[in-house]
Each structure stands twice: as C-alpha cells, then as structure tokens.
Predict the 3D structure of the following.
Amino acid sequence: MEPATTPLVTRHDEQGVAVLTLDSPANRNALSKALLTQLTEAVTTAGADPDVLAIVLTSSQRVFCAGADLKEAATVDMVEQAGRIIAVQRAIVAAPVPVVCRLEGPVRAGGLGLVASADIVICSDEVTFALTEVRLGLAAATISIPLRARLAPRVATDWFLTGRTFTAAEAQAGGLVTHVVPADYLDDEVNRVLADLRAGHRQGLKHGKELLTGELLADFDARGAAMAQLSGELFHSPVAQERMAAALRR
C-alpha cells in the first residue's frame, strides 16, 4: 500500500482552472485509501478557492482509473473504504464550480463513479469502460448513486449485470459521457469547453450547478451509508475474496 504521504493527486492551476491529476501509476490509479483521501481533499480545496472557475480531473497516465485497489481490499475495512468512495463522489457533485473529467484511456468499476459524478465528461474515442464488479461477486453499489442519475434504466441494467466492456460511443449514447472526439483532438475539445466555462462568472456557475445537482446530493445523503455497508459486506464475502485473489494471480 502506498504511504499516506505519497502524493497521488497533484494540482496545478491554469487561468482559473484547477487541474487535478491522478498520479498512481503503480496500481493504475486504483481507488486506494490514500488516493481517495487526497482526491476528496483536493476537490474540496479547489472548490473553495474563490479564483477557481472550474476543476479538471485527469490522469498522469493513459489509464484513468482501474477501480478498487484489490490488494488493499484484503487488508482494510471495506465498509470504511466504500464510505470514502461515497465521500469523494459527493465532493465532486457538491463542488461549487463545474468539474470536467478528461478521459484518455480505460475506466473500470469504481472509476466510473468519478466519471458519473463529474458535470462534463470529455472522452477520446479510444476509451473503454466496464462495470466489472459482478464478475467478482460484487455489485456497483457505491457508484450506483451517480450512475443511476446519469444513465437510462435499460443501459444501466446492461452494464451493471453483464460486466461487459463498452465503448466511448456507447458511453455517450447511454448518458455517461458528454463529448467524444478522436484521440488527437482530446485536448482541443477540453480547451474549447474550458474557454466557455471561463467566460462564465463563478456566481453564475455556482448557482447554475446547484439547480442541477440538488436531487443527486439528496440521494447521496439518503442512501450513501446503506450502499457503503452493502459494498463492504460484499468485498468481505468469501466469494469475493476468492475471486479477487484469483484476479490478482492472473
């Protein structure tokens, strides 16, 4: 497990935009305790900065997020860990400025919760997604809260129950992704969206976002603890422990 002091999330500012970069290449930005803690703090701090008009979530590597840290899952209280996933998603939704997610490469399992919590998602056409939890005897419990707010019911049923890999085009059609562009134009599209956001005033951005996120925040508050409990119990189950161990051996 990475030491808590190792910086796994970095920040730099560009003309009123706080760029938060996931930087845990050893485990493909898996949602470890350290990464979740640092990302929640980074989003909260950036959102409170009066000079920030938008936040960008991106990755230092091609993979955006591999999902839960399966090695760590064998050694920590996964109910508490699931609570941290709820907390970071809620922080993204509650941030008083728009959160833009930049996706260059694969997103798996819990990583889709970060994507679904963001306000605008800009994606290379090479990106793939999968909710692989079901294949480990788990369920996409904690991330179901933002995902169900974004996805059409039939799409959610397909992705949650099959665990199959789906494309960026499918993700856009299903409501998970806002814009899909060729890989070579990804940063151009991100810059185009950020130029529009920079043209706004923080007060307008804040209140405009509040109009869109109230029901989702209420859902986090109503169901977050129950989803964390369910997630943790499934992670600690014999079936999941056996399947996670097998996955790590491959």
